[in-house]
Design brief:
Elements lengths: L3 H4 L1 H10 L8 E3 L6 E4 L4 E11 L10 H18 L3 E11 L5 H18 L2 E9 L4 E11 L14 E5 L4 H7 L10 H9 L5 E4 L4 H12 L2 E5 L9 H7 L4 H7 L6 E5 L4 H10 L4 E8 L5 E4 L5 E3 L10
Parallel strand pairs: 4-5, 9-12
Antiparallel strand pairs: 1-2, 2-3, 3-6, 4-6, 7-10, 7-11, 8-10, 9-11, 12-13
Helix pairs in contact: 3-4, 3-6, 8-9
């Protein structure tokens, strides 16, 4: 049997997906999207998601505990935003080292509470255990109107591919041993989905290259993006130079930006751009969804067209 580092995170996820509950009855959407979708109160569906942060992978204990807590909550809420939903409640479970200063734990939860307040989320439960390494797991529950939520599988051929905000910020911050706190676009996403302007959407947690592949695979399509169009964060270029890395590498494969990648029909592009402007949300057109036979491609800085290699973060690599 292969070791996990050879088997790979995405193969493990596919195995779990194939052996887990399928959409049936109250369950509208299971594993494979940003959240699970359940039947809720009349006219609404419930959204459920979970995300885990591990010491050494997502944060270091020398980083400010309050910001670690904020990031933990926001990273899960981002999945609700990617469905066009409204976040409501959260359950927080932590595994903490026994020798950890109590002040770190208190600051951690202060950060979680701060982020929850900013998103309108109420903490309703969780669990605490001792562990050999610090781990934070956040479950967030939300809701959306019936048939008014975005899936990864809804993209159509000729849809434009857009992204909110700027990219590379999460990876650049970690290189500087800092915590990047995303500015979630919850309201913009909810309004755009409710107005029927978005066909498919996903949040960028593992990196742009990985998420473009997710949208293409789930929608049964190919995709094209232009590297020159990728909007870099303000500090990405300088940080990448200090670390002897390419700035676009951080944007494509670094992950943890928690921006929204979505597709829009050509006829609705103008309405989306107007909504974004009125919502003071920066959006950028990156490319277009294409027939599956064309594969997933990227035009480099030199204009050369090549396959977009999926290099999103793999926890077992």
């Amino acid at each position: 049997m292969k070791q996990l580092k050879k088997f790979g995170e995405f193969n493990l996820i596919n195995y779990i997906k194939n052996t887990s509950a399928k959409a049936k009855g109250l369950l509208k959407t299971g594993i494979g999207d940003d959240t699970a979708v359940f039947a809720g109160r009349p006219g609404w569906v419930l959204l459920a998601t979970t995300d885990m942060l591990a010491e050494g992978v997502h944060f270091l204990t020398e980083m400010p505990a309050k910001k670690i807590g904020e990031k933990a909550l926001l990273s899960s809420v981002s999945d609700i935003a990617a469905m066009g939903g409204k976040p409501l409640y959260a359950l927080i479970s932590v595994g903490l080292r026994k020798n950890l200063p109590a002040g770190f734990a208190l600051d951690l939860f202060a950060g979680i509470n701060k982020a929850a307040g900013s998103c309108g989320v109420k903490i309703i439960g969780g669990d605490t255990v001792s562990a050999k390494t610090n781990i934070i797991n956040v479950v967030v529950l939300g809701e959306a109107k019936n048939n008014k939520y975005a899936l990864r599988s809804g993209a159509k051929e000729k849809d434009f591919i857009l992204v909110t905000g700027t990219l590379g910020n999460g990876a650049a911050a970690f290189l500087d041993k800092k915590i990047y706190l995303p500015n979630l676009k919850i309201s913009f996403a909810a309004r755009a989905v409710e107005k029927g302007l978005i066909n498919a959407m996903i949040d960028i947690s593992d990196g742009l290259s990985s998420e473009v592949h997710h949208l293409a695979k789930e929608s049964g399509l190919g995709a094209f993006i232009d590297l020159k169009a990728v909007p870099l964060g303000p500090a990405v270029t300088k940080t990448a130079a200090r670390a002897h890395k390419q700035p676009y590498e951080l944007a494509l494969n670094g992950g943890e930006d928690y921006e929204l990648l979505f597709t829009v029909a050509p006829a609705k592009l103008g309405k989306v751009l107007t909504l974004a402007k009125n919502s003071t949300v920066k959006v950028t057109v990156l490319g277009v969804m294409r027939n599956k036979k064309h594969g997933v491609k990227i035009a480099g800085l030199d204009g050369e067209l090549k396959a977009l290699i999926r290099k999103g973060y793999d926890h077992f690599a």
